[in-house]
Predict the 3D structure of the following.
Amino acid sequence: LLTVVFFLYGALRISGAGYPDDTKGALIALFLGAGVLGVGLMVLLYWLSFHKTVRIERLFLISGILLSLAYMLFFAPVSVPDEQAHYITAYRLSNLFLFRFDQIGNQDVLIRATDAEFFGYFDGNGILDGEKYRLLLQHFSWFAGGNTGLETYSYDAVTNVPLGYVASALGIAVGRLLHLGGGAVFYLGRIFNMAQYITLAYVAMRRIPFGKTVLFVISLFPMTLHLCASYSYDCMIIGVSMCFVAEIVRMIYGDSISRRQIIFCAVMCFVLAPSKLVYTPLLFLVLLIPGDKL
């Protein structure tokens, strides 16, 4: 009841905030949509947990997909911190997926005119306001039409975490192959990045022998969802670190250790260690594995 009252009050405040009528209507619809989604998700999780006894991993898939999609929709393009650089870096990598190897060693990014135009409407101060939603509604397009020629875009791309952009770059490449519009390509990159995080977190939840509820809660923290529904490379790093910790805990408390587990952890270390220095101490968890199991 408090949630319903909160969202109704918020819609009333938005209606009196002085936005233009078209922007006001879109904002109220988004805000009330969030309320319906939130209350509906609470009811759904309660029913699945206590009446259907669905396993927590499947509850995570339902919650993660719905909440991540909500975050992705409510945060307009380039309103997540540093998303300008993340998007351009992913776009640069998508050129390699499309066999544009002239991007290697080239600081400038080759970008479709329709994508550069869409990105240009939002490439500003990163503030989320009603104007961002108006621009999104006005300039979103499903298909590119004939405006697919490449042009040069000068921007400093991120160079230290290339693996963190593989999923989002793949989404952009698929969108370009399908000749989607600038808005559709932008959101397809976000969706691929989000799908990568949800898959990694789901695998971690399946593998860890206990503490699944803790992992469930951490996976759905607002800041975690905020990142995983954007172009940030952090969602890959967080997902990989969850998988690594889950497998180490399984190796510590399980009956035996297989060669496949050792190879899996080695690959996770290879991905995690160079990505962000602050995560490197996690790798020393291998020292907790009992020696007689190795």
Observations:
- The two ends are 55 Å apart (CA to CA).
- Residues 142 and 184 are 5 Å apart (CA to CA).
- The mean pLDDT is 85.
- The chain has twelve helices and two strands.
